[in-house]
């Protein structure tokens, strides 16, 4: 009995430092940020409690309204576009193409670059003076126009292009691993029934990979929240604040405008939005499994 107790105690003691670091550095930081958002903090923390005043100021700030709306546009299009493209690439790879290793390396290469490098590369590609527009005009179409990156109404969509290009390889790798794990008997039974390959993927194989898709959605949602460096390198939030995102808003208010309380309120709203967006899906998955 005593030996069993010490055997169970040893792994718990090994994991204990990691748990403590997580509690203090991660969850503790969340609690501290939530508290600071209810204070009159400026450049330095100020613990004078003011309730929800910072949240009222936040949603009365036009720049925040623009950034917050852009987060939904960018997040929805980026998650859906990346999931669709990555899954399609995984299905094509699952057909055992020739030179599969080469194609896989090429498609995974963007993931090896930081968002800073990705943003700068796409800034050059989409620049009206040196990018796609200039290239097509030099081919003989002088009226061709593709200047979304400098248009207020379209700049946010250029960030979607860059983010999908950067993350599609990761989703492809995850989904390909799932596709390669599908039992071969399923494919043999489908061939015997004469089912089209596309129908088998859509109706049988992809529903089996729902847990992997959930993982992909969570990873992409995290990437949406962390997209500060992409918008800074690619558009700088411009033209004006047309392509601003909450991550840039929070960093700007914290380090440049010295408004810690308002920045903390914005960070808490970002966290609450992500939780609210993912919670119904996880609830649906949990209830479905319990049934």
TrEMBL record:
Q: Which residues form a coiled coil?
A: none
Q: Which UniProt keywords apply?
A: Cell membrane, Membrane, Transmembrane, Transmembrane helix, Transport
The residue range of the signal peptide is none
Report the locations given in the UniProt record: Cell membrane
Membrane topology, from the record? Multi-pass membrane protein
Which residues are listed as membrane-spanning? 12-35, 71-93, 105-125, 154-179, 200-225, 262-284
Lineage top rank: taxon: Bacteria
Q: Where is the ABC transmembrane type-1 domain?
A: 68-281
**InterPro entries, per this entry?**
ABC_transporter_permease (IPR051393), MetI-like (IPR000515), MetI-like_sf (IPR035906)
The family note in this entry says: Belongs to the binding-protein-dependent transport system permease family.
In Swiss-Prot or TrEMBL terms, this protein is called Carbohydrate ABC transporter permease
* Species whose genome carries this gene: Roseomonas elaeocarpi
């Amino acid at each position: 009995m005593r030996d069993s107790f010490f055997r169970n105690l040893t792994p718990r003691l090994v994991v204990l430092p990691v748990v403590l670091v997580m509690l203090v550095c991660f969850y503790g930081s969340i609690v501290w940020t939530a508290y600071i958002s209810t204070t009159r903090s400026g450049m330095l923390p100020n613990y004078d409690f003011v309730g929800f005043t910072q949240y009222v100021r936040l949603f009365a700030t036009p720049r925040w309204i623009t950034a917050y709306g852009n987060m939904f546009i960018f997040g929805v299009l980026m998650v859906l576009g990346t999931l669709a493209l990555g899954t399609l690439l995984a299905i094509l790879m699952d057909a055992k193409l020739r030179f599969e290793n080469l194609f896989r390396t090429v498609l995974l290469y963007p993931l090896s670059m930081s968002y800073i490098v990705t943003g700068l590369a796409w800034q050059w590609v989409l620049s009206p003076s040196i990018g796609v527009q200039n290239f097509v005009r030099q081919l003989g179409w002088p009226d061709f126009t593709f200047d979304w990156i400098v248009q207020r109404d379209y700049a946010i969509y250029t960030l979607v292009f860059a983010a999908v290009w950067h993350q599609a390889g990761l989703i492809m790798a995850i989904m390909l691993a799932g596709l390669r794990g599908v039992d071969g008997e399923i494919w043999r039974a489908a061939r015997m029934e004469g089912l089209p390959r596309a129908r088998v993927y859509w109706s049988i194989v992809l529903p089996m990979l729902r847990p992997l898709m959930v993982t992909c959605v969570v990873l992409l949602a995290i990437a949406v929240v962390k997209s500060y460096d992409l918008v800074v390198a690619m558009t700088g939030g411009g033209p004006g604040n047309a392509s601003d995102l909450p991550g840039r808003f929070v960093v700007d208010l914290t380090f440049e405008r010295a408004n810690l309380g308002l920045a903390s309120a914005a960070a808490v709203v970002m966290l609450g939005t992500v939780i609210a967006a993912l919670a119904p899906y996880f609830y649906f998955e949990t209830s479905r499994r319990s049934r």
